């Protein structure tokens, strides 16, 4: 940054304490939507609109039913709404304290109420996100940690974990915007008084849209009754269900932290490749697909730090123009190429990696991306099952390399001019305690000093 165009007061736009979390998004029309805490103690959480041409609005102050000790994750400007993803203490949970993950939304053309809900959202709604392992008694991953929005597919990917005081477990679930809309079009859940049970309440405006009440927005023609409804009806009864019955990825004994997703054109279809950071400082590369044979497939685990070093990954970002993944750590940023096909040296390694970025080019006799292939008819992928991971694999030799002139010193007759060829133990390489290849890795022939063919 070489110049400062304008200075803006940070109150209600970012927290006083850097340890308090916040998220924000700027819309195309210039409004800033911030989800943060706006007091020194961190006890006044708010979803607040400022800047731009719309009047400032906020969530109800000191009302734990609207926001109850929230941890804000992300915000997105989508269509007529601004969406916020968060986790918070569940006010509707009657027995003990538990945390639920939520999606909340407000209309971008909301201008607040009159007499009731002045300077306050009249279109604020929130719904619970369900990410759970199916079964007679489902296992819930209640705490949202990170999200990623794929606008091309109208999908929101989310990382969910167990509570920090529970056994570590993590999962990735994907939600379609249509499922989120369906929950917001359903009934509300409300409470008549502080001692009563939360019960389903019919939605007075089914299929509500910000622009459908009047061309000038949802606030024109608001009555006292509708403002009273907006004040008490904000929690949806229906839960937002994910795209698949079970999470796309599940793993015990580890906590995921951040997530980004790349869309990759394979030989036959599009693949969603997820990059998932862990609390240990590693990155898991996994497939998101409805194909049951490929669900939960881990393609590889990238070790970014020296052995024995653990450091949390703070952020992940894909820069498509550079075809790179940027990894944010405490004191540095790492850059990793998305396409690493050159690491697979043989046809077997290339195809068994099941990497959507890569395929074997028979004409070039190397592993390449689809864009770098000489001809698509000469390019092959084999993404039919998950790659083998953490299984004992004995080593196998690859093909011999071509003969090459070389010098050989046998220790008796001195140096001879010979032909040599070599092979490597990489088809497959030994893994997880598997045996190394048995046999020679180099052959020597046609040594001139001896006058006849000599092999070792």
UniProtKB/TrEMBL annotation:
PROSITE patterns, per database record: SEMA (PS51004)
SUPFAM superfamilies hit by this protein: Plexin repeat, Sema domain, TSP-1 type 1 repeat
BP terms from Gene Ontology: axon guidance; neural crest cell migration; positive regulation of cell migration; semaphorin-plexin signaling pathway
Primary subcellular site in the record, as a coarse category: membrane
Bilayer disposition of the protein: Single-pass membrane protein
Pfam families attached to this UniProt entry: PSI, Sema
Keywords assigned: Disulfide bond, Glycoprotein, Membrane, Repeat, Transmembrane, Transmembrane helix
Gene Ontology cellular component list: plasma membrane
GO molecular function, one term: semaphorin receptor binding
Segments forming domain Sema: 1-338
Cell compartments where the protein resides: Membrane
Gene3D superfamilies: ligand-binding face of the semaphorins, domain 2 (3.30.1680.10), Thrombospondin type-1 (TSP1) repeat (2.20.100.10), YVTN repeat-like/Quinoprotein amine dehydrogenase (2.130.10.10)
Domain of life: Eukaryota
PANTHER family: SEMAPHORIN (PTHR11036), SEMAPHORIN-5B (PTHR11036:SF39)
Protein name: Sema domain-containing protein
